[in-house]
Design brief:
By secondary structure, the protein is an alpha/beta fold. It has helices at about 25-35, 40-50, 70-75, 90-100, 140-150, 170-180, 185-195, 200-210; strands spanning about 60-65, 80-85, 110-115, 125-135, 155-165, 220, 225-230.
Length: about 230
């Protein structure tokens, strides 16, 4: 018996595409929980703007913006940016519109109700950048989404997709258990289901190899997350 044989990962459990207002957690409470992650969002925005060198006046598509805090931080970092949020949930668009109004960035951000697997509303090579944060594990047809991204992104455009990873190690599991003492039980539950719905770096690389993004992106990892991005 080979004691060094790696443990088999639990199967991926899809989480569904759309987040709706409901009794499990209302949108106001969900928004409060998202706002607690501002430092994480700031790091993501800094990576896109500084490391990936997002240019002035860029036209940016965010897939699955949710409450839109990423887009808000992005346009506050540079008011020349224009953001379009493609969101599958009417409830989340309603919440996002309230947030951009409260933050006085309505002129920079707009929203479209739709599914990223079909972006026919956009012409080829429409965007200077495409970003997504914690949305990938919700996509029901990721290969189709990746191909649509490749179509609507300019040849020299920037791509940055961040999501969790299902193959977290012991260190990440310990951090997760400790973090549960500082967040609500519902958020702890949703975090766990998101991890179980996410992919591994190997799974994502295999999928991307089947798409028009093959050989055009990098996959970076840390103990919790995966970032699919343009070469930096």
């Amino acid at each position: 018996m080979n004691k060094n044989k790696p443990k088999k990962l639990p199967p991926r459990i899809p989480e569904g595409e759309s987040i709706q207002d409901g009794p499990e957690m209302g949108l106001d409470e969900l928004n409060k929980q998202f706002k607690k992650r501002m430092k994480e969002y700031e790091r993501f925005v800094k990576f896109v703007v500084k490391d990936l060198n997002l240019k002035d006046n860029s036209n940016v598509l965010e897939i699955g913006p949710g409450p839109s805090w990423i887009s808000i931080l992005l346009v506050k970092s540079n008011p020349s940016f224009k953001l379009v949020g493609l969101e599958i949930s009417n409830d989340m668009i309603k919440l996002a519109k309230k947030n951009i109004s409260d933050e006085n960035v309505e002129n920079n951000i707009s929203f479209i109700l739709g599914n990223a697997k079909d972006m026919s509303i956009f012409e080829d090579k429409s965007f200077d950048a495409i970003i997504s944060h914690d949305s990938l594990h919700h996509w029901e047809e990721p290969i189709q989404v990746f191909n649509e991204i490749a179509r609507v992104l300019k040849d020299d455009g920037i791509l940055c997709i961040r999501d969790g990873r299902r193959d977290i190690g012991l260190g990440a599991k310990i951090i997760f258990q400790l973090a549960r003492f500082f967040i609500s039980k519902k958020m702890s539950y949703f975090w766990k289901t998101s991890i179980m719905a996410s992919y591994t770096p190997v799974e994502l690389q295999e999928m991307i190899n089947l798409t028009r993004l093959k050989n055009k992106i990098e996959i970076k990892t840390d103990i919790f997350d995966i970032i699919i991005c343009s070469p930096s």
